[in-house]
Amino acid sequence: MSQSIKLENIGCLVVEGNEGLDCKYGSSLTIEDEYIASIGSGNADTVIDCKDKMVTSGFVDSHTHLVFDTLRIEEHKLRLSGASYEEIAKKGGGIVSSVESVRSASPKKLFDKGYERLNRFLSMGTTTIEAKSGYGLDVESELKSLKVINELSDAHPIKILPTFMGAHAFPVEYKNKKDEYVSLIIDKMIPEINNKGLAKFIDVFCEEGYFSVDQSKQILEAGKSAGLIPRIHADEFYNFGASFLAGEVGAISADHLMKIDEKGIQSLKENNVVATLLPGTTFFLNKDSYAPARKLIDNKITVALATDFNPGSCHIQSMPFILTLAVMKMQMSIEEAFLGATLHGAQAIGLEDEIGSIRTGKKADLIVWDISDLSEIPYYVSNHPIRHVIKNGKLVFGS
Ligand SMILES: [Zn+2]
After folding, report:
1. Is the pTM of this model over 0.85?
2. How close is the Cα of 314 to the center of ligand 1, in Å?
3. What are the beta bridge partners of residue 126?
4. Ligand 1 centre from 64 Cα, in Å?
5. What is the sign, positive or negative, of the torsion defined by CA atoms of 21, 23, 27, 28?
6. What's the gap in Å between 299 CA and the centre of ligand 1?
7. pLDDT tens digit string along 271-314?
């Protein structure tokens, strides 16, 4: 039987306008099955009184590393006492330090930890995420991580788009034979993942000390040939042409971009690559230099915002906090930041026709807030004035 919900007495309904976002006051919204059926009219089985508060689309977090086992609290302590990311990596910290525990963890353990994290995402208004493998770094453990991501998406209200990221770092056993690891990714991992239909995207950490531009290109092209859509961790610590490569291989998104240069900007612009900015990572790593959001927006590049949630460089799950950072540290307006965290995030994972904004016919992924308009979000900083979250037309958080 079809389910219907009506949201009534909405204060500000944040909808797509001709340019950016509009606030529709005093409206109502009707949901039928999974979809937004009508705005401003209609009846339903269940009525939710929004008490003149704001209703928005749910957040789309287009960059997360959801599946990992142990936390890296010691590493954060080291960093706070002055050690750099590179120094920590040299001491055996960094990405590879998450690998051992993921390799030995049972799928159930990874699933249970992931599920708990998803509950936290949901309570903060996130209704869709992208999630990467990349802490397994061998055939078996990469497949295990991707299977867990797919199972979590089936089991939890949050929809998850899976990304294969075997090229997250070089595992220690391949430290001195890096090209062999690149071959392992191309010849073994990609075909297996493709056969089992476990991923939609392929991602590479194209960075000094990680994967070179040439290695990244080989991996992304191999992924593309297998039907995976490329995305890139680009220009985070150094600029050595990763953003340019994003344009060249037709990546859907280039992420981080703290060190992007003019050539990289032009490449993103000419090839319609979404720039996904992750200010939580800059904040968590205690750095001062945020990605040049204004410059990207002024160049008419679509800017998305995401958490980069991971155990090492950004243990942050809150999109409202990411919005706050975008407004306070990257000079984005609250409308730009909100679009980045919803519709542009959806574009970064190829789902902009289905989710990311409030429009008749789109999926009913919604947040009923306890505040009156978007500009109040940065005032609450780490507090989340969220009353209800609706995913696929179902009330999944708040009673
Ligand atoms: Zn990342």
Report:
1. yes
2. 9
3. 59
4. 6
5. positive
6. 24
7. 999 999 999 999 999 999 999 999 999 999 999 999 999 999 99
Q: How far is the CA of 205 from the centre of ligand 1 (A)?
A: 8
How far, in Å, is the centroid of ligand 1 from the Cα of 37?
Answer: 36
Quote the tokens at residue 160.
Answer: 């998850």
Distance 204 CA to ligand 1 centre (A): 9
Tell me, in angstroms, the distance from the centre of ligand 1 to residue 63's CA.
6
Q: Distance from the CA of 85 to the center of ligand 1, in angstroms?
A: 14
Q: Flag whether pLDDT at 244 surpasses 70.
A: yes
Expressed in percent and rounded to 5, the helix, strand and coil fractions of the chain are 40, 25, 35
92 burial type by CB count under 10 A (0-12 exposed, 13-18 middle, 19+ buried): exposed
Domains and CATH numbers, the chain: 4-57+357-397 (2.30.40.10), 59-348 (3.20.20.140)
Structure tokens that stand for 18 in this block: 């001709």
- pLDDT, tens digit, for every residue of 137-175? 999 999 999 999 999 999 999 999 999 999 999 999 999
